[in-house]
Backbone:
């Protein structure tokens, strides 16, 4: 009794934590994508500034990243395909952590371009790599939580019967 | 048929019914899942196409409009008698966004001038204040001033952006600057000595300061149409850029 009660509370809290994680991650992604979406060329310059990808691939990524962020962000906020969206969001954030660490390790002086802008910093400006990495790593954790405990409260997945992400497809195999 | 058998078959029927229901539910769920997934993918694809489309460069048209290298370092590209609208391009050979502008919209500037729809003025300035970027930019800018023929200048201008060095290392080395001049077909006999001695380094720095203050340049590239700065979302979108310029001509 004394042991089961706290664990019951914890279990009841999990879906709410997922909801908060989804909202934070989703809103950050939407904001980041939206601020970049109006000017694809700026976005391409920001990606090229990392000197991590060949120019042609950097261009493709620069065009696609803002819209991908917005779409995944919207899926997370409304709680649709929660698990898949969580996986993509977490992988995106991991890639950003890697990219920023790369820029830092290679002595580049760039703006991460996370929320638009990007490219070489002007004189007197200092890069904020550590802060960027800590923020993005925190978002990786939120993504991981969402993948582990989908879809949380207030998720469209639930009324549509999609709660549990791919588990839908697993059940299909069982019943078949 | 005994009572037990009847009950059994009824139970079976119910069980079959439930299994069928579950299967139908399941199929519905998979359909919903796939539908939502496809819509999301389509949205990403459409957004990518839109971005790529906006940044689609124009095809090279016919011959370039006449190009005149002015004494102060500005370079005018316009057909005879075309005086407006005026497009001023403030750019730095070392700045990555300027390279991007040249890649995306460079051809549109050339076409608009060739069609007589605008007078284009290039202002190669040095915006950087710290080395190695400042040194790189000054060397390149000074070298470009050694080219007095307009067509050759345009070819050299393109080559400088194509060969833009990293912002963290010394680049635009003197030997390279001389070699690219040969590639661009620069014929003036004193080009090499002009680049090697950095004859115009001082002029490049002074011009940059003057232009920066007079035109209130906060960053490069800055594109102005009849004196008003164009938003980057227009300058980097060839179709919109063309519409805006032809609109200003009316």
Residues:
């Amino acid at each position: 009794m004394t042991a089961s009660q706290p664990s019951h509370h914890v279990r009841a809290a999990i879906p709410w934590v997922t909801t908060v994680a989804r909202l934070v991650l989703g809103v950050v992604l939407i904001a980041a994508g939206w601020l970049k979406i109006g000017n694809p060329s700026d976005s391409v310059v920001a990606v090229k500034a990392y000197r991590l990808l060949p120019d042609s691939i950097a261009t493709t990524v620069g065009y696609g990243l803002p819209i991908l962020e917005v779409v995944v962000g919207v899926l997370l906020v409304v709680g649709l395909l929660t698990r898949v969206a969580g996986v993509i969001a977490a992988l995106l954030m991991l890639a950003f952590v890697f990219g920023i660490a790369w820029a830092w390790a290679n002595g580049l002086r760039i703006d991460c371009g996370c929320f638009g802008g990007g490219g070489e910093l002007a004189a007197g400006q200092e890069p904020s790599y550590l802060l960027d990495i800590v923020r993005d790593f925190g978002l990786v954790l939120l993504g991981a939580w969402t993948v582990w405990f989908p879809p949380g409260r207030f998720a469209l997945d639930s009324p549509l019967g999609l709660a549990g992400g791919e588990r839908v497809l697993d059940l299909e195999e069982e019943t078949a | 048929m005994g009572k037990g058998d009847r009950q059994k078959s009824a139970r079976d029927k119910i069980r079959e019914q439930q299994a069928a229901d579950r299967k139908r539910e399941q199929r519905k769920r998979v359909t919903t899942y796939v539908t939502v997934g496809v819509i999301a993918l389509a949205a990403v694809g459409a957004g990518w196409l839109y971005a790529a489309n906006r940044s689609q460069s124009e095809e090279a048209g016919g011959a370039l409009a006449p190009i005149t290298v002015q004494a102060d370092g500005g370079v005018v590209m316009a057909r005879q008698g075309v005086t407006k609208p005026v497009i001023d391009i403030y750019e730095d050979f070392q700045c990555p966004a300027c390279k991007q502008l040249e890649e995306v919209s460079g051809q549109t500037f050339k076409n608009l001038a060739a069609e007589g729809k605008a007078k284009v003025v290039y202002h190669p300035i040095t915006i950087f204040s710290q080395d190695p970027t400042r040194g790189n930019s000054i060397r390149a800018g000074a070298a470009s001033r050694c080219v007095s023929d307009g067509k050759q200048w345009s070819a050299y201008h393109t080559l400088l952006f194509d060969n833009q060095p990293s912002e963290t290392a010394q680049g635009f080395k003197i030997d390279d600057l001389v070699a690219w001049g040969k590639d661009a077909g620069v014929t003036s006999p004193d080009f090499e000595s002009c680049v090697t001695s950095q004859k115009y380094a001082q002029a490049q720095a002074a011009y940059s300061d003057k232009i920066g203050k007079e035109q209130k340049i906060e960053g490069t590239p800055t594109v102005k149409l009849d004196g008003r700065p164009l938003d980057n979302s227009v300058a980097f979108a060839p179709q919109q850029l063309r519409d805006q310029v032809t609109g200003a001509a009316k």
In short: Chain B has two domains: 1-54, 67-249.
